[in-house]
Amino acid sequence: MPADPSVTPLRRPPIRQATLVRSDIGHTFDVCVRTIGVWWPVQPFSAGKDRVRDVTLERRAGGGVYETWEDGTVVVWGELLVWQPPERFAMTWTSTPAPTEVELTFTALGPLLTRVTVEHRGWEALSDAQLSEDCAVPGGYTGGAYRTGWTVILGRLADAAGAPRRHPRPERRS
After folding, report:
1. Could you give the strand order of the β-sheet that contains 100-110, starting from the edge strand earlier in sequence?
2. pLDDT tens, 28-43?
3. pTM, rounded to two decimals
């Protein structure tokens, strides 16, 4: 079937990645936003790398997302545009040469299975040269670096949220 000439293909399509987490949606969302400073791979996906002490996501629309270094330096990653726990949040992403947008959605597939999807969009804000610039990993947008990066990041989230939760055993009475 020939392509529809009235449809213009996206010149800079969004990056979409997904992972499955062996956990319920509430726990998965909670681990993502409350403990991001623990599971996020700051090496290499941050400005401060090994200087990063914490990553903070202020849980509300308009809240900031930022990293804090050991010396107190704060580097802003973006601002929350959408806050709908436990289904999704979206934020500006200022770690690119021009701001882009990142959205994470959480879909319950069962009582202990959640799909987490990331969409990183807004690439039209970047010039052709900026799209080719290296980011945390070599290659930039045009070389697939952001796709690779989000795969690694989602894998770390899946490992953190899918880890078995330990429940205290009830005491046995003799």
Report:
1. 15-21, 113-121, 100-110, 88-93, 74-84, 64-69, 52-57
2. 999 999 999 999 999 9
3. 0.87
